[in-house]
Amino acid sequence: xxxxxxxxxxxxxxxxxxxxxxxxxxxxxxxxxxxxxxxxxxxxxxxxxxxxxxxxxxxxxxxxxxxxxxxxxxxxxxxxxxxxxxxxxxxxxxxxxxxxxxxxxxxxxxxxxxxxxxxxxxxxxxxxxxxxxxxxxxxxxxxxxxxxxxxxxxxxxxxxxxxxxxxxxxxxxxxxxxxxxxxxxxxxxxxxxxxxxxxxxxxxxxxxxxxxxxxxxxxxxxxxxxxxxxxxxxxxxxxxxxxxxxxxxxxxxxxxxxxxxxxxxxxxxxxxxxxxxxxxxxxxxxxxxxxxxxxxxxxxxxxxxxxxxxxxxxxxxxxxxxxxxxxxxxxxxxxxxxxx
Amino acid sequence: xxxxxxxxxxxxxxxxxxxxxxxxxxxxxxxxxxxxxxxxxxxxxxxxxxxxxxxxxxxxxxxxxxxxxxxxxxxxxxxxxxxxxxxxxxxxxxxxxxxxxxxxxxxxxxxxxxxxxxxxxxxxxxxxxxxxxxxxxxxxxxxxxxxxxxxxxxxxxxxxxxxxxxxxxxxxxxxxxxxxxxxxxxxxxxxxxxxxxxxxxxxxxxxxxxxxxxxxxxxxxxxxxxxxxxxxxxxxxxxxxxxxxxxxxxxxxxxxxxxxxxxxxxxxxxxxxxxxxxxxxxxxxxxxxxxxxxxxxxxxxxxxxxxxxxxxxxxxxxxxxxxxxxxxxxxxxxxxxxxxxxxxxxxxxxxxxxxxxxxxxxxxxxxxxxxxxxxxxxxxxxxxxxxxxxxxxxxxxxxxxxxxx
Amino acid sequence: xxxxxxxxxxxxxxxxxxxxxxxxxxxxxxxxxxxxxxxxxxxxxxxxxxxxxxxxxxxxxxxxxxxxxxxxxxxxxxxxxxxxxxxxxxxxxxxxxxxxxxxxxxxxxxxxxxxxxxxxxxxxxxxxxxxxxxxxxxxxxxxxxxxxxxxxxxxxxxxxxxxxxxxxxxxxxxxxxxxxxxxxxxxxxxxxxxxxxxxxxxxxxxxxxxxxxxxxxxxxxxxxxxxxxxxxxxxxxxxxxxxxxxxxxxxxxxxxxxxxxxxxxxxxxxxxxxxxxxxxxxxxxxx
Lengths: 340, 405, 287
Known about the structure:
The structure holds 3 protein chains of 3 kinds. By secondary structure, chain A is mainly α. Chain A has helices at about 5-35, 35-60, 65-85, 90-110, 115-135, 140, 170-190, 195-205, 205-210, 215-240, 250-265, 270-290, 295-305, 310-330, 330-340. Chain A is globular and about 75 Å long. The two termini of chain A are about 35 Å apart. Chain B has a 7-stranded mixed β-sheet, sandwiched between helices. Chain B is globular and about 65 Å long. Chain B has helices at about 1-25, 55-70, 85-100, 110-125, 155-170, 180-195, 215-225, 235-250, 265-270, 275, 290-305, 310-330, 335-340; strands at about 40-45, 70, 75-85, 105-110, 130, 145-150, 175-180, 200-210, 230, 255-260, 280-285, 345-350, 350-355, 365, 365-370, 385-390. Chain B is α/β, with parallel strands linked by helices. Mean pLDDT of chain B is about 90; it is low at about 1-5 and about 20-30. The termini of chain B are far apart. By secondary structure, chain C is mostly helical. Chain C is about 75% helix and about 5% strand. Chain C is built from 11 helices and 2 strands; from the N terminus they run ααααββααααααα. Chain C has helices at about 1-35, 40-60, 60-80, 90-115, 140-160, 165-175, 175-180, 185-210, 220-235, 240-260, 265-275, and strands spanning about 130-135, 135-140. Chain C has a two-stranded antiparallel sheet. The N and C termini of chain C lie far apart (about 40 Å). Chains in contact: A-B, A-C, B-C. Chains A and B meet through helix 1, helix 2, helix 12 and helix 14 of A and helix 1, helix 3, helix 4 and helix 6 of B.
């Protein structure tokens, strides 16, 4: 390859991935700007779960109410691994992701048996069953007391000295690496041929089937991929808070993730990040100010449906488009157009 | 074309986000001039089964701070109030308190799972926690140097109420209705131990799932069992509901009714004397307790809030007061030293002389059994019940399972 | 033992009839207007809270039975005209988001007005007490509720099967567009129908209040059961709502005999089974 080709390749790589670099830069700055580091961790891990769900909903049109099942099962799996098996951080994360994916295969397979609201209700029923099992099987999960005594492991890579992850800040940067990498992967999926098929299924499933795609398989795949990444978020969350509890398999978590994607702007990947930021920050700040702050959330949801379907991201993109169209109509650009 | 939009969009996004972050940063509290306040985190709840707790915790805390003079070690006392409806929120708010506000003292009420979760975090951060919940393991197998607990644990509570019922009512057969919480199971386990030790039988148990609002099926089973006494091992709003429905279904015609874990006056007011007549209650505290410390508290509370205090307000009151006294005695706000000052120190509490024993940081205090009276027998609007017995039951240190490092 | 079973069957039937009322409303709205109404539970709670206020103001429970459904119908119609109208034919996501938003805002408003602690609401003195038949105790109030709900259900059946408005509803559930092609003022019918559905939901809240107690989250808790009931019985079918409600009520009370802590989850297990085996539900008219 000539230098010219190499440069243009690098330039293309930079262009395509600049958004992610900006995202990473923002998240690096986060913990220093937010009131306390733990909040940044919370935002980032829920952003990861929301982006994973956006792959399902925004790109494939697959709605579900079992996000907490994937997230929470990973929290439990990671906790149990750290308590009983090993203190290797990578093993703990792997067990979390695999458990969540296993659940996702089963739920995905059953839910895709039907479509539309029936499929969604099936995911709801399974989510309730998983919650019930977690609650009843208290010898394993600790029931409503949860699991305590979880020790956050340090980073140990063979041949290198152990890096301490005990402080909030160091653990944040450790998780950040996973977050950025996961975001990059999910984005690559949306830009790949596989991603195009997903979008086709979202637009018109029957037509996609008519072309010859096994849409059911794709939908199950999206359950598994989404579930795996939500599981990653759960595994990292477990080690951030050093606690596992039925709260993490409760519908409330699923509801929050859905809201983050819808209010952030579905089908954009960056929208859900904004959505997570807003919802986590709002619930943290607002709950200290007014006991009944949720009423504002309720009203906001109504307003979103009425005026801002595309979510915050969509609203922002619409603003951008209007601004650009204004610019195009200005005399300066007319001149440029005239001279070309 | 798509790439161009993405690039610009991102730069704009970063500007927008940057502005957002700056705005969020602007919400950080300003450091106040003068002496650094001593902050205490009060974690309580305003919704769900324990909804009535929040308001009373606030009142009890306020009174304690006021009675102490509003200042400790020459610094103003600042109460940081946070809603912790579940253990996850508990840990998050604890993190916020430590990382953002530098808080060193926590008071968390009333759910056991929340106290347990915060207790672990507090110990890690060397923050003193007073947990206001009843699960045995808080000062048992999950105990630690930094956690204290005032209410009598389920072990002690059951060992006052159940033998009292057997004595006073000659009850030989029991039926239990238990909520499917770990805490409910604690109460059930202790009940079964006590019954077995006395050679008596439980005719059966019905678990109700959390959030159960219709108890009819469980009450029907209880009535079919025809036990001498039906024990309700639930708490808060669940007990209130269960009792009302028990009355509706006629359970009182078949068996005596007892509730082992009451919260006191507010609950009694919500249920009403018509339904309460003859019901037996186990309580941590009642305003009628005869002790000089209690008289001072009840008078001050009535004067300030125009109502008679209940357990939910008494708990934070006594604990915050003792905490402040210990900080003053230790002459420092270092939690390690304050812990030492609090251990084994005898003080004049709401039930008489009390202390937090050093081996597990459990307060040594009695549990009370009351019997409710009919509306005609009430001498004042608060006169719902009389204390028919009390005793202090506490597991020997070696048997609690607590290993303090 | 047989005593116990009879008593539990009675409990299940009473519980079931409340669910029947709720399912009727939800089924009509879902089947005919194709709106998934996450705010249905809110109207159940509203019914109970309004009963508390009306009873305190008027001193009579029976006045509540009349006034509260009218109030919830009015609130419902207002909501339909102002907000829900925009959801017709829309993606279910937006329906969920908006109705969920309404449910949250409504619940928080209730807490603002009435406080976070549950309220006490007793059955009227006239209906207090138990009657004993063959040694089994039947609370009078529950017998009353059973009677009222049966009458109401029969009344609704009559209206739906035998009146013109009822036939419009049935036709609308099958094919709304065709009905408007026939020259019927659809928007008026929809508003009225929504009002009636919310009136029934409010009434069930009034009836349930002495049995279950009143607390701010009561709407959230019952919503899941409502959806399960409609799925099991079959969306858009009147007999389906009745069958679904009774099955759910009986399952809950009878499972208490065997595994009491499963009384809530059993509903979701049955719902999942129905969705996988026969999604149309027991008596639904379409998949």
